[in-house]
Structures are given as C-alpha cells and as structure tokens.
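HOLO CASE FILE
Compound: shikimate-3-phosphate
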Amino acid sequence: MIIFLIGFRGSGKSTIGKRLADWLQSPWIDSDDEVERRAGCAIAEIFATQGEEAFRDLERQVIEELLAARRTDREMVVISLGGGAVLDERTRRLISEQGRCVWLRASPEVLAARTVGDASRPPLTQLTRDEEIRELLARREPVYAECADCEIDTTTLPPDQAVERIADWLAGADKN
Ligand code: S3P
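Model generated. Tokens follow.
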C-alpha cells in the first residue's frame, strides 16, 4: 500500500514522511528528491533556468513512473509529494487509485515561519511570501481536501505525534 503525504510547503511532509516510514519500517520516497535526481540539479535551478511549467512536467512524469513501478508491489511505502503535485488531475487520479492520502495542514503563519529564508523553495508568484501562502492556500486547500482520506493539522503538533495519529488512523482504516 502507498501512503501519500500531501500539503503546502512547510506542512511537514518530509519530516513526518520520513518518521512515518521509519515507524512502519517501510521505504520513504520524496517526489522532490526524485525530480532533482532526474534533472541532475536543484528544484530552484529548474525553476530559474526552465520555468515552473517544465518543473511541473517533470514532476508529473516522475510521479507516474514511481507509481507505475510499484503497481504490483504489495509492500508499504510512504511517498511525500511536492506541495503542488496534486494540482495535476492525473496525479490526483493515481493517488486515489493507488493508495491512501494524508493531508498535512497548518496555519499560514506557521507555514511562513517554517519556510522563511529557504532559498531551495523558489517563489511561485510575484507576491510577497506571506501573500503567496495565503493566495495559494485559498486555491489549493479545496484540492488537498478533495484528495485527502485523512487530515492532520500540524500547526502545533510535533512530528512524532503526527506520526502517531497517522498510524492510529491507518490501524483503524485497516479494520474497515
Ligand atoms: C512546490 C512545492 C515544493 C516543490 C516546488 C513547488 C509548490 O515542494 O515541489 O518548489 O508548488 O508548492 P515542498 O512542498 O516539499 O516544499
């Protein structure tokens, strides 16, 4: 089974994904890492030299290939997706067909505080960082909600407790 972690930049997808995978004794995959590996350069560089659209194309392709490779695999794997990955309709369909999806959410203030000064995350708009977070959250939250089977608010929740909640939810979901 694949456990997908989705949510905005700074929501905890990588930290929590890694710890969840450790707890489940499963592999952990980060789609951003895979994109960088494939491109041979950092995401900020892809944005700077080829633009966001090229990044989105590569991201879609990498996710499709990751999932195609696991189609017959029954082992558990945790995949943390980039914050904008679910904007792609086909990616959303693959998520709902192939796994369970956890949406990590947090307040705009906390998302801003967790990502302030992080040059590895290129701007996605011409807005200030705070305005961008609010604007994109307003657009994306309905999409995250549509994909999510489980929602965890990480605004004040430490990562280990988030992992416990996801594990409890998975154990409950297994009984259904
Ligand atoms: C993006 C989020 C980033 C990365 C890229 C675009 C987005 O991933 O995929 O910079 O559109 O929100 P994280 O959410 O892991 O930072």
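CASE NOTES: Residues 9, 13, 32, 43, 82-84, 121-122, 124 surround shikimate-3-phosphate (CB under 6 Å). The CA atoms of residues 103 and 151 lie 5 Å apart.
CLOSED: yes
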